[in-house]
Amino acid sequence: MDELLKNHMFAAHAIAGAGSVTFSTLLTYPLDSLKTLVQVGSGSGRQQLGAAQILDRVRILSGTSGLYNGFGWSTLARISGMGARFGVYEILTAFYKDGREDNYVHVSEAFTAGMVAGAVESVISSPFEMVKVRKQVTSASLIPSSSFVAENRAVVPSIARLLHGYTPDQKALNHSVELLSTLTSKHPNMTGALLEYPWMMTGSGRPPPVFHVRRPSDVISLEGWGALWRGLRSGVVRDSIFGGVFFSIWQFLHQAMLDWKAVGMDPAPRSDDEIGPLSPLAVSLAAGFSGSIAAASSHYFDTAKSRSQCIVLPKLPNSVNSQVGYFWDDWNLCYISMERRLLKWKRPGSRLERYTGIHPSDRGLLSRGIWLRTARSGVASFLLVGGYFLAVHQLLR
């Protein structure tokens, strides 16, 4: 490992890869923000907002810089994810090419290796994507000023343990207390008793808004560590399809360009190595086209994952009257699972939706933002590959 780290070529390729990923993310991140807001801002019972309307809203609430909310987390997700994707792909294709004279990789082999690489990428980058998506949603959210909150609300200790700095909506809390005031046996301190329950932390029984649970510490405290991988099933399917389609089309185009270049060569080349390298521009254009097709093919699952990451689910309390804190109760989850099997309760949605994490109510919304994601992925793939070739050339010349 020490010899590998001291290797100048390894360091040059690592720097070129990280730099090209950062550069492509920087130039295409506004498209990604608009795509995410179009996906999560849609609903069956609400008005569908277009990209232009969402852009105006972000400018009014957060300014132009709001389009770059979560850029750092997105960069971390893409650097780690791209490293895993291309690293796993190269390892798998090395096994395929072992023993072959021309180092040729079939399109079907590229598709299989790309699917495995995409699955690994999804697991690694999912926590960063969770924070990134919630940061993006915050840029289009109207957040009450801190001075207003300080004057009209008081922090409750039991709530502060779950979500630091959050205070319940006093108007909603008073309304909930009024609804319970008709009971014959009243609690001497109804308001204080309600606030001891995590699901009443907002005062109305609804979970806190996404923009209040956007930091990693807030997500872990309120929802638990598992929330960082929420939407993992749809994410794995998305990245597996993307990786398989991307690498198979890229390999097909790469071989087609080699065959075209070999036409008229005398003598005829016996292997791809004798043809010579392709133009970096041609390879970058092929990568951009492959990225666009891959993004369109996997967009439904991208929408499902983005929408699931914007759902706040407070973790189950071990004891609602505990003064120590709230923790996951695995026995409650096991009991609910046993009750579901006993009552033969069927989960909503088709088998494909249940396996891939798509909510049935999102069926008509899965195509939202597809053109934004297609454009962003195509441009980002072109810049990624082109920037990588340019950086390697400059570092190793």
Distance between the termini: 25 Å
Portion of residues in beta strands equals under 5%
How many strand segments?
A: 0
Largest sheet: none
> Secondary-structure element order, as H and E?
HHHHHHHHHHHHHHHH
User: Which geometry do the CA atoms define?
Assistant: elongated
Runs in which pLDDT lies below 50 for 5 or more consecutive residues are: 146-155, 318-332
What's the rounded overall pLDDT mean? 79
Helix content: 55-70%
Structural class: mainly alpha
Radius of gyration, taken over Cα atoms and rounded to an integer in Å:
25 Å
Q: Helical segment tally?
A: 16
Keywords summarizing the entry:
0% strand, 16 helices, elongated, 397 residues, mainly alpha
Summarize the structure.
By secondary structure, the chain is mainly α. Helix content is 64%, strand content 0%.
